[in-house]
Write a structure and sequence with these properties.
With about 200 residues, the protein is of the alpha+beta class. The protein has 9 helices and 4 strands; from the N terminus they run ααβααβαααβαβα. The longest helix has 25 residues. The mean pLDDT is about 95. Bound molecules: flavin mononucleotide.
């Protein structure tokens, strides 16, 4: 499917047909996420695929009334790995070696003190990690459209309850739950602000 068509046809889907997704389909979604860009190539995203009926029902109970989580054949639990920040020097080294900065002024940039240069507090660090995870999640969502699947971002859930249910370690911050499945609805496009309201112009 043309990217333009994918962008125009994607909808948040909240009613799903019950059929299970093939393992290859789930792999395709994960591959779309894996290819996402991230700051200093940190790749802080971690995903857990919830497909069992028992866990889907329990996961829905950890949300604030999002019952379609139980209905969707797959819910991807999308997490940011806080501990990935410690891997930054390694990622940067790898990135430099791959030639990412070759021919630019960044070739001579001292990355050894990068951590100090961009020092952020804990909240800013988490926001940074979450931005990166969100990009990967959206890549997965767009690939899903291409595969004929629907999905919906869900953030209305209890972090504590989901962590307990799935025995997720403290280093994983659960950014979103994203149910996937074949759509059993064809929603109209939702309202959007006009271009003039979001575009500040060209200078
Ligand atoms: C970050 C984010 C969080 C969202 N959280 C929820 C949610 O918790 N529950 C829900 O039903 N929809 C949720 N949505 C879906 C939005 O309501 C939806 O994207 C918006 O209304 C526009 O509709 P569309 O996606 O069909 O274009 C979320 C979307 C985003 C991007």
């Amino acid at each position: 499917m043309e990217l333009k068509t994918v962008l125009a046809e994607r909808r948040s889907i909240r009613i799903f047909r019950p059929e299970a997704l093939k393992a290859e389909t789930i792999q395709e979604l994960l591959e779309a996420a894996r290819l996402a860009p991230s700051g200093t190539n940190l790749q802080p995203w971690r995903f857990l695929a919830v497909t069992s009926e028992e866990k889907r029902k329990k996961l829905a109970e950890c949300t604030f009334g999002v019952n379609f989580i139980a209905q969707a054949p797959l819910t991807m639990v999308c997490c940011a790995d806080r501990s990935s920040l410690a891997t930054r020097p390694e990622r940067l080294r790898e990135l430099a070696l791959s030639g990412a900065f070759a021919g630019t002024s960044l070739e001579n940039f001292s990355f050894s003190d990068y951590q100090e240069k961009v020092s952020r507090d804990e909240a800013a660090n988490l926001a940074y990690l979450n931005i990166n995870v969100a990009i990967a999640v959206e890549q997965m969502i767009l690939r899903a459209v291409d595969l004929g699947l629907g999905s919906c971002w869900v953030m209305l859930f209890s972090q504590k309850k989901v962590r307990e249910l799935l025995a997720l370690p403290e280093n994983l911050f659960i950014l979103a739950l994203v149910p996937f499945g074949y759509p059993d609805q064809q929603p109209l496009a939702r309202p959007r602000m006009a271009l003039e309201e979001i575009y500040l112009g060209e200078v």
